[in-house]
Amino acid sequence: MENRKIIAMWNGHIMPLEQVSVSPLDRGYVFGDGVYEVLRIYNGCPFLLDAHMSRLEQSLEKMSLPPLSGLYADILSVIGHNEIEEGMVYLQVTRGTAPRVHSYSNLALKPNVLIYGKHFPEHPSAQDAKSGIKAISLPDLRWGRCDIKSLNLLGNCMAITLANERGALEALQFRDGFLTEGTSSNVFVVKNEAFLTPPLSNHILPGTRRNYLVEKLRLRNSMVREAPISQQDVNSADEIFITSSIREATAVISLDAKQVGSGRVGPMAKLARDLIMKGIEEQCGVLIG
Ligand SMILES: Cc1ncc(COP(=O)(O)O)c(C=O)c1O
Known about the structure:
By secondary structure, the protein is an alpha+beta fold. It is 29% helix and 27% strand. Strands 7, 8, 9, 10, 11, 12, 13, 14 and 15 form a nine-stranded mixed beta sheet that branches. A hairpin with a 3-residue loop joins strand 13 and strand 14 (248-255). It is globular and about 55 Å long. The structure holds pyridoxal-5'-phosphate. Residues 38, 156, 181, 184-186, 205, 207-210, 243-245 line the site of pyridoxal-5'-phosphate (PLP).
């Protein structure tokens, strides 16, 4: 099952990923002018597919890219061609190919759409979720439209590289002294049994797991506050955890080499993960440990 060839759908055509060829004038290649989604697949089922599709629609609209149709079927087709039970699907849309000019005003191009899927031999983040992860804090150097899931990820790449070089698996970013998000995750802080997370704004991505969890926590009457969180609040947190499609909910047990709370995966991080796992079981019919 391992080392399988990855099968892609490139502008509607199924082919091996390695055979997809992109023009050097594609605006995604030249300017990062495009958007993307990463979906987690459990038991062959894309979890929170509707939420991903509606965020994609919004990203396209915010970048004045045309809406796309047929993506649900395309994603299922890619899952089928790659025989993915446990894995992920990557989907990206660029504005298309054109002579290099910065402005896209009046550029009516045909978007280039790439979808491919990858089978995971084992749940890649399961061990991290059991033990918790280390993170560092960094100033948020990114642009002012982090609500768009754009291909421009250089700030995120620089921050996660620094985190990895310091032995950590995520960087929690701060803008003007307030928490924004991780490099590929949203962040929750637990204080006195209340869940705090930064409010939706142009400075964070509206994470599918973040939004799902806020809804589920409120349904069970947990205290959830979407409000600005200062660096001091983070430093004095009882628990911190991150959420994302790949990591679901994963505890941060050390920040900047200092223990967070008990230094172990706390009960609220566990509750958050359990709520997401329950959703996966309900939607995809599979129990994930
Ligand atoms: C910058 C950023 N924030 C948050 C998230 C979490 O979003 P989701 O829960 O939809 O995966 C991601 C996911 O990759 C991300 O890149």
